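Re-run with default settings, no changes from the original entry. Doing this only to confirm the output is reproducible before filing.
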Amino acid sequence: MRESNEAARKTVARAAAVTAPTDRGPASAWTSDPGPLRCPGCHGALRRTDAGFACDAGGCGARLAVRDGVLAVRDVMTGDNRIAADFYNSKLWPRLRVWDSLFWLVNGGQRRARQVALRHLPKGGGIRLLDVAIGDGVYTSWLPGDWSVVGVDISIAQLLACQRRNADRALRLVLGEAEDLPFRDRTFDAVLSNGGFNHFNDPEAALREMVRVARPGAPIVVADERPDFLDIGHRAGVPALDRWIASRLMSMGDDFADVIERHRSLDIAAIGRRVLKDCRYEVVWRGLGYLMVGAAP
């Protein structure tokens, strides 16, 4: 039975109370310096407060809380982002890990498979990287230690797991949506989205935001499963079968299975060509995924 949105949030709150990091380590990443942040409302400058950050521009009055080392730009997501957040914050996500592990296994192991995307990031030191949909940060420790990594995700449970997995890195983690990034223009040396792009509320709007916050010429790297990777039923003329596989067999639940179905006709390559400079699109992971690489104009 699916958990209600409220039940899922209570589950995450209890987990956070038990496992939340102290002020040492990753929680110290959000210091008095707002770094690349801007006010998500008026786009003005932010200042540090005891609870997080505040905007004093023109009566804006926006307040952003830092809780358990995570900057909360948006506590409750919207549309399909909310459905995805509820899934990743619930008990359904651990059940999917079996299939997730199998996916990486048939593609040579997770480290080898994810290099399909990671190898397109810059090779130098001191890189400022934005990771959109950072999830639990499984590959973050593979990045050079002198890189400054900012991660955005819709799931507080995933962000807390990312902290625990990368306790030796001062990550700046943000709870928010890809379609409305709280960062200044032309800030990052590279932008990565390694999973999740298909299920954003508006993938094209999210990609345009990635471009906005990247410096001109910076690489934008996006990788994910093909939107229609579950197509056995559609090819057999029984499309309901694919929804059943996602919802029941793979334990994604009805709501998230509906998101997958709504987004299965996305033309990722066309989105990339409209937004990115020198966009290249290729099918990867034994035909189950795609890689899209381009540059910020």
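The chain has one domain: 5-35+65-227+266-295. The two ends are 46 Å apart (CA to CA).
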